[in-house]
């Protein structure tokens, strides 16, 4: 049996390290996007910027809170055990974490819509050729995502008043209720006559949130199929076809990584809830998957998009030349000066 404190400590180190790497990678990608000039990308760079900013916010809030979501008995319990786990600002940071996560999913949908419009429905391309319109679209869906995903959490209340079942679950994970910021919401309550009354408002909002995610996935599949079909049969130049395939493949990988990293923790959470399985400390490494995809996404974008790949190689080559020059100058200054005549003359015995 693994010691909860050891599992938590190792998970903490891994998550903090991944979050720091994510921040460095996304800041580097933002600098790359802003400094690379390309006529091919048009307004696409603004969508990439919005995605990177969401991942930055997500990683920072995750690093501060290290959140975990559980269903314990009749309660949905959402808590953070990170550096600010017991801080009064903890619930607010948990709200922001959920908001950034929801915006990442919907931002992927907007990326597919953009690619579909620019390839298949070019008559609508004016929507993405101005950063003002892209900003408006982003604010509309980000505001909707924020409201839809935060309302259930706002409905729940921070509390230190726990029933024995919640305290027992925390103990199995090596946690104390006093060390975490906890939000909890009741799924139902038992009435005096023995019947159970379900929290219809909470359940309705959560169902709507899941519906939006399913709609986003359906949109991604529809747009992806349309793009693939069009590129296979459209009468376009080979260079254009190659560029569009390149961007499409980048988008597929960029979408698959977070979907896998979110799907696995969600599956464990759902199975544990349905079958009432307490996996204890296993929740810590499982939820660490949430911070893997923000590390990989900047690498995917920099690799698949040729303009960014060339620009990154140029920056790395320039940095390498500067390093080699400084190293050679340092070596020259450190090399002792000798007289060649004295060095070549025989030594008297």
Automatic annotation (TrEMBL):
It comes from the Eukaryota. The chain crosses the membrane at residues 12-34, 46-72, 92-113, 133-155, 201-227, 247-275, 281-306. Pfam families: 7TM_GPCR_Str. Keywords: Membrane, Transmembrane, Transmembrane helix. The keyword Membrane applies. The keyword Signal does not apply. InterPro entries: 7TM_GPCR_serpentine_rcpt_Str (IPR019428). PANTHER family: 7-TRANSMEMBRANE DOMAIN RECEPTOR C.ELEGANS, SEVEN TM RECEPTOR. This is Uncharacterized protein.
